[in-house]
Predict the structure.
Amino acid sequence: MFNRLSGTITQKLPKQLLLETNGIEWDITVPDTCLNNFPPVGNQGKVYTYLNHYENGMDLYGFSSQEERSLFFDLLKVDGVGPKAAVKIMSSVSLKDLVSILDREDLSGLEKIPGIGKKTAAKMLLSLKGKLTIPDSAAPLIRKKEYEVVTASLIEMGYERQQIEKAISDVLPSLQQESSFNSAPQSEKENTVFRKVLMEIAR
C-alpha cells in the first residue's frame, strides 16, 4: 500500500484531481473541500492516498493532509458509510462544523448533510461523538503573521495560501529546536523558512 503520491497536478474538477507522476496520470477522487488546498494546475503537489479495492475494480482517494485522510477513515468506521459517501460528506461540511454538530447531538443538523439519512445520522452520532478533534489553530495563527513575507512571496510564485501556511506550521517545530535558528535575525529566519517551505510544497 502506498501512503502518498507526488507529481504534477494536471487538472482539478469537482471531486476529482489528476496527478502525473513519471508519465502516469492518476485519477484521484478528492472531497471538494480539499481541492483548494492543492497547488494550482501545472505545479508540483503531493496527495495522501487511500486505495479502495473491490470485486470489480479499484478507486483511488486523495487528501491534501493526513488530518483530512484521518477524518475520512473515521467516517468509514460508521456502519453504512462507504468511501463515496464519506467524500460526499466531507465535500459538504467542514471538520469544525461536523465536530460542533456532533457535540450538540444535533441529529437534524446531521440529516441536512447530503447523503445522510436518519439512521446514518444516529450511527454517526454514536460512533463519532467526542472522537473527532480540531487541530490546535493558535500556534499557526501566530506563525501566519510572523512569516507573512514568506507567504506573500510564495503566493506570487503560484502557490496557495492554505498550502503555504500548513507547510510553515509543519517545518517550524524542527527549526525551532535549533539554537542557531532561534538566535538569528528575523530576516534570516524568513529566508530559512522560505527555503524549507519551498522544498516541502515542491515535493
Summary: The beta strands are 4-13, 16-21, 24-29, 44-54, 57-63. The CA atoms of residues 96 and 134 lie 6 Å apart. The chain has eleven helices and five strands.
